[in-house]
Specification:
The complex is a heterodimer of chains A (472) and B (62).
Chain A lengths: L2 H5 L3 H9 L5 H19 L2 E4 L1 H16 L11 E5 L27 H8 L3 E6 L33 H8 L5 E6 L5 H7 L2 E4 L19 E6 L2 H11 L30 E4 L2 H4 L3 H13 L4 E3 L4 H26 L6 H10 L4 H21 L5 E5 L12 E4 L2 E4 H4 L5 H4 L5 E6 L8 E6 L5 H14 L15
Parallel strand pairs in A: 2-3, 2-4, 7-8, 7-9
Antiparallel strand pairs in A: 1-3, 4-6, 5-6, 5-12, 9-13, 10-11, 12-13
Helix pairs in contact in A: 3-4, 6-7, 8-16, 11-12, 11-13
Chain B lengths: L7 H12 L8 H19 L16
The chains are: A alpha/beta (472), B mainly alpha (62).
Chain lengths: 472, 62
């Protein structure tokens, strides 16, 4: 099996090959590091590789296989993490210059431990927008993570390196964070699948925070089976995360192939249609048609929800970084610093009011979910803007790109709903756009079922990009 | 705070002094633009009345 074919494989596909003795774990990681060495200089996805560690783990997995021992559900699958995850031995930089001065992490983040317990293999840490306050994938210190489908375009952020790495076949699986859309925006722009679970579902222990009351972690992959398998492996109680729900883990694998026939599905209109470019509208319509969903509903007060998420983020983010703003202002990415600076100056009553609205909004959305099981909406209002592009025009208004790529993701994460972002390729287009598949709280199984049904029908797909310079 | 009353320059000066941030260490015009965006969005927040009993809890059990 050549390295070219390995990089196109899913994580669960690699495990099947490993069990069938068609490839070894060592060959899998060697192929991954070879591809990273060749392509990463032009893509900007990885900021760190952990090759010695990965090879040690691969050798251990191969030895266990040779002894006939059982292997985990992601055995041999390489994965990488946004560099706000603690990786033992690395300073958790969270996209910043300042954090590089931190002592190396003494232990891995909980989710890394859980994936490695499933025999996946960590291969490195990934580029991101500074302190996760970003939707572009640009970074003043490390350079941008680029869209592998067209290197002149954004990956999306803030988990930009996750989008780039998975779309370019540098890893089948990545972990990122999503406060207002930072899993869903890069999934949309890079044309891969991303899962933002329900708020409180997966442990955040061992990651650098941004906005504690909105922060989520979740996986990226090029296939839904990898999303579901990794999500199931990462589920479960972790006492170290005080905000994590005490709910029992609910595995999604048993129902993944159940299809969409018994589910009531509707598109979101109103706010979600108003500012969407034709590509975004067409992507949602294509998915809705495939699912036989002709109903359109409105999420009440979505614009107000988004406004509240925006203000909570400004203020909580500024509070987190206030000391650094006072003492290290010159070491921030200026685009991030000035937003945080403004957040530090806002009246507290705005945020208290914004928080109070969350339960009201959740109750209205819960009413909507008594009539439907799944809601569909575009993940981003446009395909990937060009790197460096500061503004775009939506619904006739010129807007800043950096804060407004998350127009359609923010109202959903504001109340913590689970979402799979699924990639759609409209006819003749080189750049994809994602559709959010939104379920009621704690129903990740439904999002994944729908995404899997769409994947099987070919309506959504995440082919490996062939970035410039990829002669393989 | 109404639109007519909002003065981003005055807000910037007063709040930065209160919180101990040195304006010279940021791009004043960009910070001002972010403040104006926040003020515009705050009108959507403040114009929506909720009961006194409405919970501000950020953690949910659905």
């Amino acid at each position: 099996m050549s390295a070219v074919a390995l990089h196109e494989m899913s994580g669960v596909g690699l495990r099947e090959m490993l069990l069938a003795r068609k490839v070894s774990a060592c060959e899998i990681v060697d192929a991954a590091f070879s591809r990273i060495a060749r392509l990463n200089p032009s893509l900007g996805a990885f900021t760190d590789v952990v090759d010695e560690r990965a090879r040690r783990r691969a050798e251990a997995i191969d030895a266990r296989r040779a002894r006939g021992e059982p292997l985990g559900p992601l055995a041999g699958a390489p994965f990488a993490v946004k560099n706000l995850f603690d990786v033992e031995g690395l300073a958790t930089r969270a996209g910043s210059k300042i954090n590089r001065e931190r002592a190396p992490a003494e232990a891995d983040a909980t989710l890394i431990q859980k994936l490695e317990a499933a025999d996946a293999i960590l291969i490195g840490a990934l580029n991101m927008g500074e302190y996760a306050y970003d939707f572009t994938g640009e970074n003043a210190h490390d350079g941008p993570s680029r869209n592998p489908h067209d290197l002149a375009h954004m990956s999306g952020g803030s988990s930009g390196g996750c989008g780039t790495a998975v779309a370019a076949g540098l890893a089948p699986l990545a972990l990122g964070s999503d406060t207002n859309g930072s899993i869903r925006v890069p999934s949309s722009l890079c044309g891969i699948f991303g899962l933002k679970p329900t708020y409180g579902r997966l442990s955040r222990h061992g990651t650098f925070p941004f906005v504690a009351s909105l922060d989520h972690l979740g996986p990226f992959a090029r296939g839904v089976r990898d999303l579901a398998t990794s999500y199931d492996a990462m589920s479960g109680r972790d006492e170290a995360d005080h905000a994590q729900s005490r709910r029992e883990a609910q595995p999604t694998a048993p129902t993944l192939e159940d299809g969409a026939a018994d589910l009531r599905i509707a598109r979101l209109g109103g706010y979600f249609a108003k500012s969407a470019e034709p590509a975004a509208v067409e992507a949602v319509e294509r998915v809705a048609r495939a699912l036989g969903a002709d109903r359109v509903v409105e999420l009440p007060e979505a614009e107000r929800a988004r406004a509240r998420a925006y203000l909570i983020t400004m203020v909580e983010g500024a509070a987190l970084h206030l000391d650094r703003l006072r003492t290290r202002a010159g070491d921030f990415d200026p685009d991030v610093r000035d937003r945080l600076f403004a957040g530090a100056l806002l009246p507290g009553v705005w945020v208290a009011k914004a928080q109070k609205f969350r339960l009201w909004f959740r109750a209205r959305v819960a009413e909507l979910f008594r009539e439907v099981d799944i809601l569909l909406a575009a993940a981003t209002p446009t395909r990937a803007p060009r790197i460096g592009q500061k503004t775009f025009v939506l619904d006739g208004h010129e807007m800043l790109v950096r804060p407004n790529l998350g127009l359609f993701t923010q109202p959903i994460s504001f109340i913590g709903l689970p979402v799979v972002c699924a990639p759609v390729w409209t006819d003749g287009e080189r750049l994809p756009i994602g559709v959010q598949i939104i379920a009621p709280a704690w129903r990740e199984d439904l999002c994944l079922r729908i995404a899997r049904a769409l994947e099987r029908s070919g309506v959504v797909a995440a082919p490996v990009a062939a970035p410039r310079g990829d002669g393989a | 705070m109404s639109e007519a009353e909002f003065d981003p320059d005055a807000t910037l000066e007063a709040a930065a002094a209160l919180i101990g941030l040195d304006l010279a260490k940021a791009s004043r015009e960009v910070v001002k633009a972010h403040l104006e965006t926040a003020e515009r969005l705050s009108r959507l927040v403040m114009a929506f009345e909720l009961d006194c009993e409405a919970e501000p809890a950020p953690v949910f059990a659905a």
